[in-house]
Amino acid sequence: MKTLTVVEAKERLQEILHEPGSEQILIIQDGEPVGLLSPITDPAEIERLKMAYSAQLQAILAEGRREIAEGNGIHHDDFWKDLEDDK
Q1: What is the number of domains present in the chain?
Q2: Which residues contact residue 20 at a Cβ distance below 8 angstroms, ignoring those fewer than 6 apart?
Q3: Under 8 Å between Cβ of 59 and 36
Q4: What's the predicted TM-score (pTM) here?
Q5: Phi-psi group of 31: left, alpha or beta (phi > 0 → left; psi -120 to 50 → alpha; rest → beta)
Q6: Among 22, 26, 23, which residue's Cα sits nearest to residue 9?
Q7: How far apart are the first and last CA of the chain?
Q8: Residues 21 and 58 in one domain
Q9: Quick count: other Cβ atoms within 10 Å of Cβ 86?
Q10: Are residues 71 and 87 located together in one domain of the fold?
Q11: Tens-place pLDDT, residues 5-60
């Protein structure tokens, strides 16, 4: 794994992003890790990351989990039946 300072990473960002066969790069500031650049080669991984860091989606999921914990969910058979009925 490569290591760069924040200043080096900032100065070389374009080059880093377009390096073929790039690897993870640890970003350090004052000798301490502050970030990690990681190449993404799978388009599905990009979508997964967008969803994982979407505050709106995370709020929806949290609300759903809360409702299920309170017993307000629906049985999966009922869900699929309702979905079929809507067609």
Answers
A1: 2
A2: none
A3: no
A4: 0.53
A5: left
A6: 26
A7: 52
A8: no
A9: 6
A10: yes
A11: 999 999 999 988 888 777 899 999 999 999 999 888 788 888 888 999 999 999 99
Per residue in 61-80, is it b (16+ CB within 10 Å) or e — as a string? Answer: eeeeeeeeeeeeeeeeeeee
Can you give the residue range of the structural domain that contains 64?
Answer: 41-87
Instruction: Count other Cβ atoms within 10 Å, centred on residue 9.
Output: 20
% pLDDT > 70, the chain: 98
Backbone angles phi, psi at 41, to 5 degrees: -115, -15
> Could you report the per-residue pLDDT of 53-75, keeping only the tens digit for each?
999 999 999 999 999 999 988 88
Tokens encoding 72: 């307000």
